[in-house]
Amino acid sequence: MTTDVHHGAGPGSEGIGGAVSGEAPDATRPETSYDAHFKVWRGDVDGGGLEDFTVEVNEGEVVLDIIHRLQATQAPDLAVRWNCKAGKCGSCSAEINGRPRLLCMTRMSVFDRAETVTVTPLRTFPVVRDLVTDVGFNYEKARQVPSFVPPPGLGPGEYRMQQEDVGRSQEFRKCIECFLCQDTCHVVRDHEENKRAFAGPRFLMRVAELDMHPLDAAEDAGLDRKSTAQDEHGLGYCNITKCCTEVCPENIKITDNALIPLKERAADRKYDPLVWLGNKIRRRTT
Amino acid sequence: MAHVERHQWDVVIVGAGGAGLRAAIEAREQGLRTAVICKSLFGKAHTVMAEGGIAASMGNVNEGDNWQVHFRDTMRGGKFLNQWRMAELHAREAPERVWELETWGALFDRTPDGRISQRNFGGHEYPRLAHVGDRTGLELIRTLQQKVVSLQQEDFKESGDYEARIKVFQECTVTQILKEHNPEDGEPDRVSGVFCYERESGRFFVLEAPAVVLATGGIGKSFKVTSNSWEYTGDGHALALLAGASLINMEFVQFHPTGMVWPPSVKGILVTESVRGDGGVLRNAEGERFMFDYVPDVFKEKYAESEQEADGWYEDPDNHRRPPELLPRDEVARAINAEVKAGRGSPHGGVFLDVSTRMPAETIKRRLPSMHHQFRELADVDITAEPMEVGPTCHYVMGGVDVDSDTAAARGVPGLFAAGEVAGGMHGSNRLGGNSLSDLLVFGRRAGLYAAQYAREHAGSRPRVGDEQIDGAAAEALRPFGVGSAKADEEAQGPAENPYTVHQELQRSMNDLVGIIRREEEMSEALERLAELRERARRAKVEGHRQFNPGWHLALDLRNMLLVSECVARAALNRTESRGGHTRDDFPEMDREWRRANLVCTLAAAEGAAGAAGGDAEAGRAGRIALRRREMPPIRKDLLELFEKEELIKYLTDEELTSE
């Protein structure tokens, strides 16, 4: 299904007569600027392949800048999702040289100038077009986690919580929902069949966040978040390889601070060999 | 024309940021079937980029705070051009809206006694901003998103369908507001729905509803250096104009004083005002804290005159005046601009913003984690050890849809509502930091409430959407592919245009000619250029097909950006004074006579229906926007009495002061 198409760095695509500006060859270019070689996956649900591009790179740029330059000069219909371009919205998730990353927070300076930079869509989700995937899986899972239950008898303005108590859940609420953790998690990355039973790190962390919320009254309302994590959201599938933590652009310690404690709490009810293993590993590293 | 799917809803909300989601929650809680339509994924709206906090006079940190003080600060920040009723409602209702978020699961930073912590910000007399580190917008959007999900869970329990009463149409764009024309009743045409396309497939569809709430945010993508994302193409502003509504205050564009200036690819990205609120200072290349030289007369009594006095304020605000770094944003942005022009700028054309010498590294990392991260990742700068380089960036538009203060209903178009940045009036000529998030919540809720009420009243006589309107909207949307119509051929009086190129030229024109400092010749030139760009935009052609095609999306957005840019340029040219987010080199003074005036933009009458051919080149040059001056209603007496007479003299005319 792979087709290789080559594009030059010269004037832009045909059919847009003379409208493309700026990509003149070297003479006036600052020294910090160079031509990089990119491979970008293009295609849709019916298939596609990597296309080669040669494209200008300037000082300080990130991969998303290069994708935008490709759109403006060589491939106007190249599909990519993005929004804030500041690492705050989690829209521009993709895989760069096979690693799940935000396009807007990946500096070009981390690559050797001679290196080919390969950009592909998130592998775990069905492709829509080019770098855009259907992340609907995550929205379905979000709906399956029961919401915050406000404490009865406490009106707006009456909530009192200590900083140290909100701090734990606040760490998880830093999540920008880029879904890189969902993408990298090997429970679902190459195992479509696990998707039904497994909420993924992002939404197990959401369960942990609510479970650690100082005022969540779920338990009083008859909802045991710990056991639902195990029974309904597939916590048991997680074997704490920490891949999710490694790719998190917000540096949330998903495994150590959310998943393992959740496993421990769930294990009050049920023996889980991974918790035992997790504890051993943690003791060794700390 | 191909069959276009239609869906029936009671209320349609355009936009899923803070205002849109708050409106949706309210309309759904009123029991109405509510659809939300947004350009991005659910939870990615521009609100996530808000950093500093939500202004609300809860008085958790300083008990002296109350809604009256907040109202006063807001009016001062807006140089008294605010719709005072909106400023009043906003100040009164903000605390309730913030507390409500806690009942939906939000986790704000705390005071030692366990209440919501509040931080200092420019123009706010007391620590007033509820916050979560420097990612308050994310907390707000996530809380609202999760509240929507919890309502969907309730509906699921009841009906087996999550989307029975509230549905988010994500990654969809609205290109027209549809209206029902009734030639018999003599009433203005009323809203009947919206025409949309799905970004993923390019498929067209119509959401029919008697009430539509615009909550589309701002217009920053018309400027080159901006903190705004691609979504901010002024869609709601343009949709409202095209539907027959008016825009007010469009000359007032906020340039946030502190955006990143280096490296070039991140130029414009926001550096939160919390940096200054928490103790950061501005210095020029000579190491001087220059803001002391830029305190304007109207604020002289309230700001410190020496570094010593300013530094004392952080610990003992009762006995010190506040540092001038915390002046309202328009003042600080102008000061930075002046320093750079005077040759005292930093190496990359900004000034220095320093926290590294002001607090310990650990405190910086705790209080400003996103800033620490942003500078480390994008600029190789460690803000705990060295200063940041910053300069003004286009951030927010004060102008917007002319609405009724209480109900958020757009004047002149029954069934249309607007809330948040797309609505005008609340912030006058300049918005205070932190007043945006509270604005979203207060007026988002009001828009949802009154839209629901309106829809309920019209439940028995739902307006109809005619096929011809749908065909017209579809034809307009397909134009960039150059297919289907003889019109396209006829108008091909020039080469096909690349929408990206037209966009870049628009951004450059607005940035250079209608930017932070303005003068007559430049704005006139901007209007000429806009006329040219408008013609070129009509010839914008795109390649490929309708499935997730960003070139096509941009080609359609150009219509909106050009309309809105013309509003900004025309109003700015007309207002011969300097006030808030409108600074004229040729009219540098604030003029009390102008305080009473709103400049009102409407679509020029000759243009006819939305999307109709632009006529000959001559008519094109005349522009699409008509401008008129309108008097503001006098400020209510009890609200005026919240100010000292000496202060009012600076803003109000003698006639206004003696008119009671």
UniProtKB/TrEMBL annotation, chain B:
Keywords from the named record: Coiled coil, Flavoprotein, Oxidoreductase
Domain FAD-dependent oxidoreductase 2 FAD-binding: 10-437
Keyword Oxidoreductase (UniProt): yes
InterPro entries the UniProt entry points to: FAD-dep_OxRdtase_2_FAD-bd, FAD/NAD-bd_sf, Fum_R/Succ_DH_flav-like_C_sf, Fum_Rdtase/Succ_DH_flav-like_C, SdhA/FrdA/AprA, Succ_DH/fumarate_Rdtase_cat_sf
Gene3D superfamilies: FAD/NAD(P)-binding domain, Fumarate reductase/succinate dehydrogenase flavoprotein-like, C-terminal domain, Succinate dehydrogenase/fumarate reductase flavoprotein, catalytic domain
Ranges in a coiled coil: 516-543
Superkingdom of origin: Bacteria
Signal peptide interval: none
Domain (Fumarate reductase/succinate dehydrogenase flavoprotein-like C-terminal) ranges: 503-601
A Pfam family that the UniProt record links to this protein: Succ_DH_flav_C
Database matches in SUPFAM superfamilies: FAD/NAD(P)-binding domain, Succinate dehydrogenase/fumarate reductase flavoprotein C-terminal domain, Succinate dehydrogenase/fumarate reductase flavoprotein, catalytic domain
Record protein name field: Fumarate reductase/succinate dehydrogenase flavoprotein subunit
